[in-house]
Specification:
globular; alpha/beta; 8 helices; 403 residues
């Protein structure tokens, strides 16, 4: 068997065809697929291959845009782009076009992996269009180099890039100027700004600033331990919470059923449902991380029928009895890898009336939807939101009912 000659370092001109999952774009050259970053469909680009492991594809970045797309703009972050700081891989694209490309990715994933012919609109969050998608991030991580310089990693490396500004961050984080200081003998800095005006930063996990953040979203107040997970977009938690409530209401949410909030974190969705349907609702939040579970117990203490359990979701769903689940709504917000076959099989075994699946990865969502639809559920609706402007990431929520 002849091995494909390596193209590493090779330069050639390609026509960019379409977007692919992961923030890269598809081109072809001499019978092979070339995944190219920092380009746009319809462009012609001179590219240089930076990764080639043989086989049917390689990876490249542009060295010159020969014919530019009308959707190309000056990058929103001067120090990002090819070879620069990571974390804004769509910053060279008009904001409206970014959302179209994300819809392309979701549509293809649903069709190819789940046989579902849908193209949900990827919706903007409040203020993003007016602000050109800048100043939305309330959570930032900075790595620290050996010389004490803080900043994001350079693309495809662990080299720290010193940055003069953090244009995606909210004003409170930018004004604090922590990215402009020297941090000798430090590895990582995590900065968080709350919706109530607090600022907290962790220096190698040691808390500075506010000890506990207070967030308001979806009609409730939430208290978070240092480093706790929360949506990074300033309106992300509120948007997702309200969307889950809306989808639950459409399918006749039953406050007395054995409702579940899987991968429940600090209790956002349980709290949002209580704000809408009252504090008498019955719901169990399941989360494997102890500190998040403790936060959920505090945040849900006034909900009479709420329970927060600290256990892996897979174990919980495997031991769950189907009795009482026929009228239940199950909300699940798994990590980027998705819920997975065992958790989905557990849901199919107990047969809840309604499943609301919150997903941050379209391919993982489509894979799990394939198993759910094969097991007797139908997709009633999918909503998508652009919670991460200038990156390839976005959030989707699928509503499924028993067929």
């Amino acid at each position: 068997m002849n091995k494909t000659p390596s193209w590493l370092g090779k330069e050639f001109v390609v026509d960019i065809e379409k977007v692919a999952h992961g923030g890269v774009f598809v081109a072809r050259h001499d019978g092979r697929v070339v995944f190219v970053s920092h380009v746009l469909p319809g462009e012609k680009a001179m590219v240089r291959v930076f990764e080639d492991r043989g086989g049917s594809f390689c990876r490249a970045e542009p060295v010159e845009i020969v014919e530019a797309s009308p959707d190309r703009v000056k990058h929103v972050w001067k120090q990002a782009g090819p070879g620069g700081a990571g974390g804004a891989e769509f910053g060279h694209i008009k904001l409206a076009r970014q959302r179209e490309l994300k819809a392309d990715v979701l549509e293809e994933a649903l069709q190819r992996m789940a046989g579902i012919a849908l193209r949900p609109e990827v919706q903007a969050l409040p203020g993003d269009d007016a602000d050109n998608g800048l100043g939305y991030r309330t959570r930032i991580q900075l790595q620290v180099g050996e010389d004490g310089t803080p900043g994001p990693y350079r693309e495809r490396s662990h080299d720290v890039v010193w940055v003069k500004d953090l244009p995606l961050a909210v004003e409170e984080i930018r004004e604090a100027g922590l990215h402009l200081k020297n941090w000798s003998d430090v590895s990582k800095i995590e900065i968080a700004s709350s919706s109530t005006g607090q600022l907290q930063w962790l220096v190698d996990k040691k808390v500075k600033g506010e000890e506990r953040l207070v967030e308001r979203a979806a009609g409730r107040t939430f208290r978070l331990s240092p480093g706790a997970f929360w949506q990074v977009h300033r309106y992300g938690a509120d948007t997702l919470g309200k969307a889950v409530v809306e989808l639950a209401a459409k399918q006749g949410f039953d406050v007395k059923a054995n409702n579940l909030d899987l991968y429940g974190g600090a209790g956002l969705f349980s709290g949002a449902l209580a704000a809408k349907f009252g504090t008498k609702l019955k719901i169990t939040s399941v989360e494997q991380f102890k500190q998040a579970t403790e936060d959920a117990r505090i945040n849900l203490h006034d909900i009479d029928g709420a329970t927060a359990l600290c256990t892996p979701v897979e174990r919980f769903i495997n031991e769950l009895k189907p009795e009482g689940m026929a009228d239940a709504t199950v909300v699940l917000d798994p990590p980027r890898s998705g819920a997975g076959a065992k958790v989905v099989a557990g849901l199919l075994r107990v047969q809840p009336k309604h499943i609301i699946y919150v997903a941050c990865d379209p391919v993982a969502l489509a894979r799990d939807l394939k198993q759910l639809t094969a097991g007797g559920y139908k997709v009633a609706e999918i909503k998508s939101f652009d919670l991460f402007p200038h990156t390839h990431h976005f959030e989707s929520i699928a509503s499924l009912v028993r067929a």
